[in-house]
Description:
2 helices; alpha+beta
Amino acid sequence: NVTDGYMDWMQSYAENNPQRLCWLIEEEGETIGFATFNLQTEGQIKGILYGVRPAHRRKGIFRDIMRFAQN
């Protein structure tokens, strides 16, 4: 399953690297989305990969991730 592959990658992405961040979006105990970032110089953050599980798409979750990431 491609979605599970992304989830596995995302979970290992930030492991043991303080320059990398991973946000998990959960609903009722289930991970339904994620966002990964690299910390850059001067406090800047670069978005790397984002995703929302297919069953939870078209509910504004991705839009909320983007909005929150910009703040």
